[in-house]
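Example S7 (structure tokens).
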């Protein structure tokens, strides 16, 4: 389930030229400045039972506890001697029966040309500017945050039964995990935002008649033109903002660790006949089994549902299900959903599905929606119309293919390993450019949509982007070394699973590690690891049994990886 979320922009464009002496760096302290009125938002007196580690007994206190928890998570890794002040409130924001604006945050003030700033004529977000200067350059609050109170108003026209979840344990079920949303929005306030008030014009902020690039823009490149955003004209930036799939982040810290975070791209390999043998570009899906190595290999059969105008679009039950069973189904793109096509093929016994584009509209990247909703458990990919026609021509000649992963190329990154930025067409004010692009998998904290796969406490690539813009440059957290992740790229597959699950992760620094599986009620089901692990890749198999050796029931489970420096959680579904 995807919950559209927009950044709420409210930049103060003052050019600050205050001089300040540097101070020893320390772990950052955050203060939540509550601007809600009596009886509302953070002051809501509605009684609430403690949930998921949140001890608050009123709705308002639970909200404030979540904010403080998110601030503490950021504060544990960020070095700054200057207190970071977040002006926060809960207010009615857009919400209808199928979507909602969850909230937003913005940098209140930006600054340039302080003697402590590494880059001249560059706008810095005020929290980072204060950190670099070692003193508070602005008397104002630093980050402005606003969240949607309507989700808790029991309004049937507001996102159905979906509400805020105030626990700390990622057990939100069908509700929305407030902790991960607040972490996301604080990330914007710390500098993960392009800070251009109107992307339709491409103009940089200006003060005293002088416009300057924003810090974030200096790490952005348009792969079509090869130009950096900070070097473009206004018109070029406006055009780049809608150049979908071609705007990337080239910061060295993010690029270096990206292979540890992102999955390899889906890939289609034609094995036979020889005339079409080779690797073909493929689009993955949000539903179904993840592509894997060595993957699924089988003959390819074009589906036939017997119903025009396109009998090969798989929108109805198949008349050639006997031929499809045990093979990879090839399906034309048509009027029904990608999930429904794949489910029709799966119900006929297909072990994988290839959807061939029709060339009429761009293929969504990735395809479709949530795996639990769709019920699809086979791997599903899509290919271009041209590649589809090439392969279809060999269906009578023993076409055999493998649905797998590319050996090197990453989901959500370009061929050079630079992570893509969100650049939809038309532009989405507050979302475009200031987020990672949606094809990234696993889902990242700073994508434009909150998903069930994003967990509070896990900053993934965001901390490395903050390193790129200067948060960790030349600084050390007093008493706490700047710790890199002990384990990265935590993923369980297949997901959903029936008999066994493989949990893969990479240990960057050896030491004690615990890996446990929990039910949705927070009860530990199985301890998988409780020992020192060496540096390097690891894979642990869970056979779907609890600590007593009993097979667990079908349902949703969470697995939690803990070390001295890190907590990362994942979610998996076990089917009957």
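Recovered sequence:
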């Amino acid at each position: 389930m995807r919950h559209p979320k927009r950044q709420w922009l409210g930049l103060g464009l003052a050019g600050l030229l205050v001089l300040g002496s540097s101070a020893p760096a320390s772990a950052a302290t955050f203060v939540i400045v509550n601007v809600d009125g009596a009886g509302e938002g953070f002051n809501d007196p509605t009684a609430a039972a403690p949930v998921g580690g949140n001890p608050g007994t009123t709705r308002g206190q639970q909200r404030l506890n979540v904010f403080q928890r998110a601030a503490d998570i950021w504060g544990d890794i960020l070095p700054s001697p200057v207190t970071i002040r977040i002006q926060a409130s809960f207010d009615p924001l857009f919400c209808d029966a199928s979507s909602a604006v969850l909230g937003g945050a913005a940098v209140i003030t930006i600054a340039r040309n302080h003697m402590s700033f590494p880059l001249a004529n560059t706008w810095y977000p005020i929290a980072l500017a204060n950190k670099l200067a070692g003193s508070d350059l602005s008397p104002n609050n630093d980050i402005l945050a606003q969240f949607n109170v309507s989700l808790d108003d029991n309004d049937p026209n507001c996102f159905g039964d979906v509400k805020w979840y105030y626990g700390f344990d990622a057990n939100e079920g069908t509700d929305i995990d407030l902790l991960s949303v607040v972490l996301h929005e604080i990330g914007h306030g710390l500098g993960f935002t392009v800070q251009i008030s109107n992307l339709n014009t491409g103009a940089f902020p200006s003060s005293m008649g002088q416009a300057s690039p924003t810090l974030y823009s200096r790490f952005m490149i348009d792969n079509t033109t090869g130009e950096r955003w900070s070097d473009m004209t206004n018109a070029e930036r406006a055009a780049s903002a809608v150049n979908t799939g071609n705007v990337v982040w080239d910061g060295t810290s993010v690029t270096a660790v990206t292979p540890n975070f992102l999955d390899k791209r889906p890939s289609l390999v034609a094995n036979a006949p020889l005339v079409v043998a080779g690797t073909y570009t493929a689009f993955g899906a949000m539903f179904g089994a993840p592509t894997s190595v060595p993957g699924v290999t089988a003959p390819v059969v074009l589906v036939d549902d017997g119903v025009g105008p396109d009998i090969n679009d798989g929108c109805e039950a198949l008349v050639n299900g006997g031929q499809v069973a045990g093979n990879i189904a090839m399906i034309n793109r048509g009027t029904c959903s990608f999930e429904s096509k794949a489910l029709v093929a799966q119900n006929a016994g297909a072990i994988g599905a290839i959807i061939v584009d029709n060339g009429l509209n761009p293929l969504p990247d990735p395809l479709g929606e949530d795996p639990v909703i769709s019920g699809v458990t086979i791997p599903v990919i899509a290919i271009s119309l041209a590649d589809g026609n090439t392969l279809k021509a060999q269906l009578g000649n023993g076409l055999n293919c493998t649905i797998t992963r590319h050996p090197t190329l990453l989901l959500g990154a370009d061929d050079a390993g630079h992570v893509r930025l969100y650049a939809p067409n038309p532009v989405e004010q507050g979302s475009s450019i200031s987020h990672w692009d949606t094809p990234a998998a696993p889902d990242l904290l700073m994508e434009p949509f909150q998903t069930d796969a994003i967990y509070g406490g896990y900053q993934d690539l965001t901390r490395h982007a903050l390193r790129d813009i200067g948060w960790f440059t030349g600084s050390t957290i007093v008493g706490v070394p700047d710790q890199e992740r002990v384990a990265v790229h935590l993923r369980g597959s297949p997901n959903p699973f029936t008999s066994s699950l493989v949990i893969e992760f990479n240990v960057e620094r050896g030491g004690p590690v615990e890996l446990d599986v929990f039910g949705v009620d927070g009860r530990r089901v199985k301890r998988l690891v409780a020992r020192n692990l060496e540096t390097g890749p690891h894979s642990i198999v869970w056979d779907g049994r609890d600590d007593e050796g009993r097979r667990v029931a079908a349902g949703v489970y969470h697995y939690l990886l803990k070390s001295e420096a890190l907590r990362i959680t994942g979610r998996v579904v076990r089917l009957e």
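Notes on this example. Residues 3-258+416-469 form one domain.
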